[in-house]
Amino acid sequence: MISYLIHESGTPDVSGTTEFSAVQESFQKWESDVASYIDFGYAGTTNRPASLLESESNRLDCVNVVKWVNYNIGFMSALALASNSTRYTNSNIITEFDIAFNDYHDWARWCINGASSSDGCITGEYDIPSVALHEVGHVLFLEDLYPIAVDLDSDPYNDVNKKQVMYYSFQDATQDIRQSLNYGDRAGVRYIYANTNTAGSSVGETQGADIAAGAVNDGSTVDYVLAWADNPVGANSIRYRYGWDVSSSTGVPSSWSTDYSITGIGDETQGVGVNLINLDSNSRLDLIIAWIDNPVGNNTIKYRIGWNIDTSGVPASWSSTKTVPSSDVGNESQELAITLSNIDSNSRPEMFVFWVDNPSGANKIYYKIGWNVNTSGDASSWSSRIDTGIQPGDETRVRS
Q1: b vs e for 6-15, b when ≥16 Cβ sit within 10 Å of the residue's Cβ?
Q2: Alpha helix locations (H) across 260-320?
Q3: DSSP string for 229-272
Q4: Which of 361, 335, 323 is nearest to 116 (CA)?
Q5: Are 305 and 353 in contact (CB under 8 A)?
Q6: How many CB atoms lie under 10 A from the CB of residue 159?
Q7: Residue 114: which residues within 8 A CB-CB, separation 6 or more?
């Protein structure tokens, strides 16, 4: 375990000691990556200096300290947000690291655009979780990332590297919010600290799952279809399998199918939904799989339809990828669900997509309605997002 301490003085910019929990959460997010192995441990507060960074810069006390300091101590200019120094042996074993936040700047416990609470970002304040996550990445030997060689839209700050935690610059205090590891960050930490505690199994990451029921194999009982997003480094895929002939007394299938998959869904997926329905009014069910695509900027809800699945669950054909008008989905989402029901008493069903919006701070559950889905799987119109008023917490991972 790599233990660390936080200096007891903290920063006066936030109420109480909430900056301590923000720092701890940032260490935990690196540790929580399932395909790498790192073990950090918070050991409490201290009055020790960040010795590698302060006036005792030649002193190696082998104690890992996180501290807010004044910029004029010499190692840090007024422009710098934070700094990290790590000492390690010739065999790359860490012997000490210290992290210093620059108290010349104003800090906030968490940031979202437009926040105005005492612990939320306002103009001129910087987001503690975003900067802490970046500095912990440096502890793990990850270097800064810079703009990609090919500029996608004439904005040097708006490229795929900018979404990574390890991007070198925070252009805007209230908009550069990077509180979750992105695919480049995970790729780096997995390369250096590959998880070897898996008994030879293949380790990956799953982002979102859903389940639906329907009579697929023409048996006398219902069948399940279970879908999930496989999120390795690089291109994602959605996998699904069927549970056949579900017991009416226990809810347990008699057997499971092999895994099927669909590809071409993007590199970052934040939620998967699945549904079984007869959309084209013939004798076979259709399979709808939806997902949240998480590129740079706004997330997008997309879906495909597998037409006329046979008794083995294999579609006769797949539709092209369809997009839900979704500029109001947000930039970070956790979990998605999809269902269809006829609520306006005409001949065509409505499609409902539910998702968890995951900004900094409290999560919210929203949904959209696609009205009168036709036999091609397209809605005649879509509602704007509807707020359920439900706030399930700050981090939502599993939906029952």
Answers
A1: bbeebbebbe
A2: none
A3: EE--SS--EEEEEEEES--TTT---SEEPPPEEE--S-S-EEEE
A4: 361
A5: no
A6: 20
A7: none
Helix %, strand %, coil % for the chain, to 5? Answer: 10, 35, 55
Give the global pTM. Answer: 0.56
Q: How confident is the model at residue 400, as a pLDDT?
A: 27
Say if strands 269-277 and 260-262 run parallel, antiparallel, or are unpaired. Answer: unpaired
What is the Cα–Cα distance from 85 to 100, expressed in whole angstroms?
9
Strand partners for 4: 42
Ranges of each domain in the chain: 2-192, 206-387
User: Which residue is it, tokens 């010499």?
Assistant: 74
The answer to whether the CB of 315 falls within 8 A of the CB of 262 is: no
- The two structure tokens encoding residue 288: 């709808």
CA distances from 6 to 54, 138, 156, 236, 362 (A): 15, 17, 35, 38, 25
Report how far residue 255's alpha carbon sits from residue 344's, in angstroms, rounded to the nearest whole number. Answer: 38
- Residue in the structure block whose two tokens are 């069948």: 223
How far apart, in whole angstroms, are the C-alpha atoms of residue 310 and residue 323? 26
At the second CATH level, the architecture of 2-192 is 3-Layer(aba) Sandwich (3.40)
Place of tokens 């071409």: 264
Segments of the chain scoring below 70 in pLDDT: 55-59, 71-79, 111-123, 148-160, 171-176, 196-206, 233, 296, 360-361, 393-400
